[in-house]
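Progress against Task 2.4 (sequence-to-structure conversion) is shown through the following example record, which the project officer requested during the mid-term review.
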Amino acid sequence: MEKFTRLSLATSCISDNDHSYVLDVALSPGGGTEAAAALCDRSLRLHDKATLRPVGEYRGHGGRVCGLTFARTRPGLLYSASADGKVRGWDVRHPGTDAVQLFRGDPSHVFCSFDLSCGDALLCAGTSLDGEDSFLVFWDSRKAGSPPLGVYSESHGDDVTQVRFHPHDKDRMASGGADGLVNVFDLRRGSEDEALQRTCDAASSVAAVCWGGDHGERLLCVRDDEGLRLWDLDAEQADALLDRSDACRVTKAPDGRSLDYLLGGAGLEGRPQMLVAGGDRDGNILLMECDGDGLQQLGSLRGGHAATVRCFAWDEARGALFTGGEDGLLSLWKVDRGKSSSALKLKSGSLKKNKRANPSPY
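Structure tokens generated for the chain above:
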């Protein structure tokens, strides 16, 4: 994990509109050269991954963009979903053009989360609460314009705030909701009741979910109250139950500021630990690792943002971190090969697992 202590700011790019927050960032897989950012003005900006040079813009969504991801097996496709109840596919080889694919839900659906399976076959969007129901809506990504394959309607009782497919298993998916539930599905099982393999209690509204562990067996949840839950899905109990005060005790920025919020997490290929990112309202970024024993600070980054950071993406192959914030900046941090971990002026610590009783799964 030493690479995270050697990250330094490489470059930043600001949006044309000073009031456009960067809400989400996605990276093209493998040897792809694109990075995409979703802005609060409903536009998508395409950048060169190595330099952040702007290379194009897409417009067409009629609501807030709630998810952004590149296809893995079909180079050139970028997918985004919006509160307007539509999923669009864009051709990154032709920046600025209209969407080349369009998927619709029910006219009443307001999407608030979205993802694409690792095999690129399935799209799934989660909806906000519609009356007494919220939905997970599925499409075959190869059949643009066709109606949904089906919906799940009984697994959440409030907004579906997160949808995350497993990084290696195309039929495994997790969802998180404002009802405080994190559900794990095996989509090969047919009906919703059969597909639902496990329901985990996050004990508060779910802000972010990600897969990790040596073989993708761990599931990390960041809650809206800044708490953390980490489950080993091969075990019966949650590994760790931490809250914001726990994280604050082990994180310090170089100027002495402590953690104000948690951004989310990311799995690290072939490692049991999960990367967790947070920050303060001055734009400093704090990086931590989380495992079954608790939290430990890895490093602190400053100078890339002047306001709250809203999103991040880790590029394992290039050793690069991308961050976007409320200052309209998209920033790129790279591993400085000549910088030792001792060069960082930070106060780091660790926190072992909270020993409070962990509720068993539903």
